[in-house]
Each structure stands twice: as C-alpha cells, then as structure tokens.
Amino acid sequence: MNFKKITLSSAVLMALFGLTGCAEDAPTASSVEKVASTSNESTMIIYPETKKGSVVDDYFGTKVPDAYRWLEDDMSAETAEWVAAQNKTTHDYLAQIPYRDKIKSRLAALLDYEKVGMPFIEGDYSYFYKNDGLQNQYVLYRQKGDAPAEVFLDPNTFSEDGTVSLANIEFSEDGSLAVYLISEGGSDWRKARIIDTETQEVLESELVDIKFSGLSWVGNEGFYYSSYDKPKGSELSAKTDQHKLYYHELGTAQSADTLVFGGIEAEKHRYVSGEVTKDGRYLLVSAAVSTSGNKLFIKDLTKADSALVTVVGNTNSDTNLVSSKGDDLLFITNMGAPNKRVVKVNAKQPSVENWLNVIPETENVLSVSTGGKYLFAKYMKDATSLIQQYDLNGKKVRDIALPEVGTASGFSGKESQSKLYYSFSNQKTPSTTFSLDVGTGESVVHMKSKVKFDSDNFESKQVFYTSKDGTKVPMIITHKKGLVLDGTNPTILYGYGGFNVSLQPQFSSTRAAWLELGGVYAVANLRGGGEYGKKWHDAGTQLKKQNVFDDFIAAAEYLIAEKVTSSDKLAVMGGSNGGLLVGAVMTQRPELFKVALPAVGVLDMLRYHTFTSGAGWAYDYGKSDDNAEMFNYLLGYSPVHNVKAGTHYPATMVTTGDHDDRVVPAHSFKFAAELQAKQAGANPTLIRIETDAGHGAGTPISKTIDQYADIYGFTLFNMGVKDI
Question: Which of 237, 576, 624, 668 is catalytic?
Fold first, then answer.
C-alpha cells in the first residue's frame, strides 16, 4: 500500500519550496502571531497560523460553517505543512518541562521487564508472546515439550523503526499452516502472509488490502477473510462501507478469490466476518450494518454449492458462535437477554424458535469461552470478574476462585487440553498468569509479572456516585496508601462510555508511572459502555448520548466534593469515543478541569460518518443527515462546533496519529484549530501528531514511552507542579 505520509521532514521540504498556506481573513504570521502563556510564566507559545476557509453546509435549513474543511485533505502539501508547524510548536513547548526526562526514564524502567503472554496450543507446539523489555513489538515464540523455546515470528524485523506490527495470526486446525496479518504505521489496512509453520517458509505472494478481518481456515486448503474494495482517493480517509467476505484457496492468485458474501449495493453491510467450525463442517457468516447487532447465516461446507441459510435475519441483537459438536451449535446472544445467554441449536434447523437455553441470562453480563470440553462463563459484576465453569450441557461444575477483586481473562483452548491458562490483574496489581486444571478446578501460578512496581504501596477502591438523573455509576479510584484527601492531589479521570465497551480494572505500566508520581487515577464506568449489558449501552446512545457526558461530569464533581482533588488539579482523559467524551465535557464544563487530554477523538459529529467506515458508528451516534432532530442533537454537543470564542478552556493537548484511518486525524486537526483560534486566557491548546502511527494498536514501545512522558509532563506542568 502506498500511503501518503504526513511527516515532519516532507512537510519542511514542502515549506521550503513555497507550498505554504496563507490565511484568507487574517494577517500573515510575519506581522502578527497568536500568543499564549502558561501557568508557568517562563513559557510562552506562539501558535502557527491556521487559515480559514469559506465552506458552509446546509443541514435541514441550518447553515453550519466549516472553516477548517481543508484540513481533511490528508494528501495535501498544505496539511502536511500545518502538521509540521503544529508538531514543532508542541515539541518546543514540551521540551521546556524540566522533569519530562525524569518521567520518561521512569516509564522506560517500568516497561523494561520481561513480559510473557499466556501460552496457547497449536499442533505439536505451545506458543506464547514475549517482550524482553523495551522491544518495540512482542515476539512470538514456540516450544515443543521440554525443548528450549525458539523464535517463531519476530515483528521487530519487519521494519527498522518498529512501526510495522503483527496484527493477527490464525493457525490451521492441525497447526501445520498459519496466516498472519501485518499493519504498517498503525493502519487498519493489512497484508496477509501464509507460512508453513514447520519450516516457516512463506508459501505464496502476500494478500493485500485487507481490513477489519478475522481469519478462518478450511482444513489446509484455504481460509476466509474480509475486506472492502480499495477506495478511490486517500486510503487513510476515503469512505469504505461495503464489507465483503472472501475465500482464498492456497496456491491461487488473490484476484481469483471467491466472493462469499457482500457486494450487493442495495444491501450494504459494513462489517462482515466468516468463521468455520473446528471440524470444518459449517461456515457461520456474520453481517452487520453498525457496531451493534448482526445477522447470522450458516453454510454446510460438506455439500458442494450449498446455500447460505438464515439463522438470524435482522440486526436487532448480537449472536455469535461459541463452539460446535457435529450438528450441535452453541451461540452466545443478547436476543431476549440484554445480559446475554448461551443457547444450543441443531445446524439443520438453526432458526431462533429452535434455540434452547444452555446458560440462561442472569443479573450479570456474560461472556463465554471453551476449552478442555468445558464452558467458562465470565461474568462481569460491577465491572469486575466472576468466573464459573460449566459442562457443555449447561450444568454448573464450580466457581473459579480468583485472588482478589479484579479482571480475569483467558480460559480458552483446545478440546483435548486438560490445562488452560488465564491472567488476572487489577488497577494496582500486575498481571499474573495461572494454569487451571479443568478436572479439579485447581489454579497454580504459571508466571508472575516482573515489573518493578510495589503494589503493596497502593490502594484501589470502587465507589458508586450519583449522576445528574439519579443513576448510580461505579468508579474505581487508585492511589498511594495514606493519601491525604485535601483537594491537592493531581488526578486523571479516565472514561470511554460507548460501543458496549467495558472498562474493567487492569494493570498498566504507564498508569503505574502516574501513580508513582503521586497521582490519583480514577476510571468511571459510564453509560454507553457494556458494564451492565445492552440496557446500559443503549442508555448512552444517539438521543441519550448526553447521559454519558453527565455521568463523566458527575464523576469529576464527586472527586472534587470528596476532596480527592480540585478543579485546579484535575485532568480528564479518553481516547477514540473517549476522545469525544473529553471534547464534549471540556466544552460543556470548561471550568471543571485544569487539563484536557482528548486522544484520537471523534470530534466532528456532523461529518464523522463521511470518513472510512465511520457510518458504522451510527448505532451509537446517529447521523447528521438522518433527520433534523438528530442533526440538532449532534450539533448541540459536537466538540468542533461548540468551541466558543472568549472562553477559558482547560490546558489541552490533543493527540492523534497521522496514519489513523479509523478516526481520521482531521477530527483532531479541526478541534485544535478551533481551540487555538478561540481560547481565552493563559492555558495552552496544543496538538501532538504522532507520525507513522494509527489508532493505537501496534504502537512501538519507544513511541509509547515518549507519548506518555509528554502527556504526564504536560499535565503536571499545567497543574503548577514545579518538580517531581
């Protein structure tokens, strides 16, 4: 893929050759410059000029200016120059923070330890991911029996700077073949490589232009994958809304791949995937128009040219395959069960009326995995884990005891395995991997974290606070033991609140650095997430999206009322949909926060659906062209459209990646431009644009260290902290 890269070096060259933009309605930078000082009097910011255009859109008779529409063109020299100028301004500012290097050193020390993932079995080998310390990417190892482990795939060899990552790998059922996907510069577009696992030989030419794809083998003959047609224009921002499922037969050209599902213009599906049952008998096809709800179809692979049979014919619920045994299929679904249930059905008669409950719905949200001929029900109780083991008929075998309150993940493997693995952690407790004897239920420590962090010096507690409409919302607050609640503690409040995503307590080395600095870290489980099932999710969508912002504002007010912190020491942080969250609350209640940290945010709510696969987010957001009511609601909170001139906004550092083709960086560009033009007072409004980086996945550790050193340094500096 030939991406147009917006890099500092190329932008400087463009500027040297006179490819600069000139403001249409403002003096040039040589005659007057917008200047801001910070709370530290020695620091002054001279912002680059950002020209204003004259674009105006008409929504149901309402005229909406879009002065910075030109920043949406990620292929233009003008945008590249703007990126370079903004990055220079930001990095010049950050360089003046006296303790930034101290934070960077501590982050490096906290991340510099051997990190080993849970083992998984494929063929005759046990595979696991490992990072020796500060390797940019995790290395995939394998081990046969008691023989020494050997490197199987080292993504650090894919590129010199670590920006090409291993995105996914899928083994054939016998483990003799594998197909893996790579991501370049953090992009969602992938390339696929097919290898013989014994010799590690690449078997054929790469498959290209794959996006949002699972991988599923049919024996050793071929596999299913998904993608969009290559878009016209920019691969980073052009709209992609017709997802298709293909079958690739080994030894044939990608151009000969069979289209299995999708491609009908009158019935577009934005997210399509295929999964083959372990015995190779059936293909399950999931098709969705949005990020919530899917149709489900089944195809008998034992019969030539068999038709797809409808299992679920609408997108009002989510249903996915759990496992199969012959013609018996197990699904997990929220159809008629907002907290989900597991059902059984015969593949010959798979329609909904034939479903039988195996694990009924309970008051807690369910996810499920299989291994060792058992089902493992992973319940979420107030955002923390509760694990139960069942046989395949739904008879409860036992509760799985966990070390303390926190998050457990794993419990999956082959049917033949007698030992499964799971990991456990919480906000202050580094991850420990356990092995579980599925016959006895006994857990044994397999590997403890080697991170240099003493969790005994910290405490983490869950509280419940009341939101604007009376809803009780959970929040986990973590800090050093003995913290004095006097309102002076630097605090980061983090949230997401969307797309049925649940924020369960987990350890993070980057978060540990903040805690060691004396900071408080609070995570609120807002509506729009999945912590309490579909009803909790739906309560934060479309015309109810304000509930999410109210929940977050109430969390901040709770922290202030309880004297955990004060407005002068409170930062608000979130990424992607959480970036929208930060943008919305800082424009609605700017006085409540000292620092705002919106990352890769969805910030232009009137146009988000016009880029890449953004229209698929409409279940959560609605669209500005749906109707006048939805347009007005979106306009009422869209961060880009609610920056008001003369307002004192928090010190803000917007962060994004120039290769983010999920939430395109234009969202962040336009928001930063609005803030710089309209900010009143001394607080800085900066944007930090990471080059050769995307939405977050696959980011090299070196970039992660730099990014968090900048974020924490910026936060403390603007809270008035002189030294650490």
Answer: 576
Locus of tokens 């890449």:
612
Paired tokens of 375? 């089902």
Q: How far apart are CA 346 and CA 354, in angstroms?
A: 8
Q: What is the pLDDT of residues 601-659, one digit of tens each?
A: 999 999 999 998 899 999 999 999 999 999 999 999 999 999 999 999 999 999 999 87
Percentage of residues of the chain with pLDDT beyond 70: 94
Closest CA to 494 of 566, 573, 555: 573
CA 568/CA 111 separation, integer angstroms: 30
Is 269 considered catalytic here?
no
- Write out the H or E segment, with its range, that includes residue 281: none
Give the H or E element holding residue 649: none
Residue 616: C-alpha distances to residues 151, 346, 545 (Å) = 39, 32, 16
Q: Residue 276 corresponds to which tokens in the numbers above?
A: 């083959």
pLDDT in tens, 193-209: 999 999 999 999 999 99
Q: What is the CB neighbour count within 10 angstroms for residue 121?
A: 18
CA–CA distance, 41 with 58 (Å, rounded to integer): 44
Cα radius of gyration rounded to whole Å, the chain = 26
Contact partners, residue 647, CB within 8 Å, separation at least 6: 590, 678, 679, 680
Q: Kindly state the average pLDDT of the residues 430-439.
A: 97
User: What span, in angstroms and rounded, lies between the C-alpha atoms of 243 and 268?
Assistant: 8
pLDDT of residue 186: 86
Token readout for 193 is 């490589």
Q: Cα torsion at 191, 657, 717, 12 (round to 10°)? A: 120
Question: What token pair was written down for 500?
Answer: 């049925």
Say whether 537 is catalytic. no
Degrees to nearest 5, angle at CA 152 with 149 and 155: 125
Please tell me the distance from the alpha carbon of residue 302 to that of residue 292, in angstroms, as a whole number.
31
Cβ neighbours, 10 Å, residue 532:
23
pLDDT band at 43 (very low <50, low <70, confident <90, very high): low
Q: Decide if 391 contacts 415 (C-beta within 8 A).
A: no
DSSP string, 676-692: HHHB-SS--EEEEEETT
Identify residue 349 by its one-letter amino acid code.
Answer: Q
Task: Assess contact for 190 and 180: CB atoms under 8 A.
Answer: no
Tell me the three state secondary structure of residue 713.
helix
Which positions ≥6 away from 93 have C-beta within 8 Å?
A: 43, 45, 684, 686
Whose CA is closest to 173, among 221, 136, 245?
A: 221
- Angstrom distance (rounded) from CA 18 to CA 469: 55
DSSP character for 616?
A: G
The answer to whether residue 22 scores a pLDDT higher than 80 is no
Q: What is the pLDDT of residues 303-321, one digit of tens each?
A: 988 999 999 999 999 999 9
Question: E-strand spans in 55-206?
Answer: 56-59, 62-65, 115-116, 120-122, 125-131, 139-143, 150-153, 164-171, 177-184, 189-196
What pLDDT score does 693 carry? 75
Domains of the chain by residue range? 8-108+453-718, 362-450
| Residue 501, both tokens | 């995503």
pLDDT exceeding 90 applies to what percent of the chain? 87
Domain with residues 8-108+453-718, CATH architecture: 3-Layer(aba) Sandwich (3.40)
CB–CB of 59/606 below 8 Å? yes
Nearest alpha carbon to residue 557 among 469, 468, 624 = 468
Is the distance from CB of 574 to CB of 495 less than 8 angstroms?
Answer: yes
Dihedral sign (CA 254, 258, 261, 263):
positive
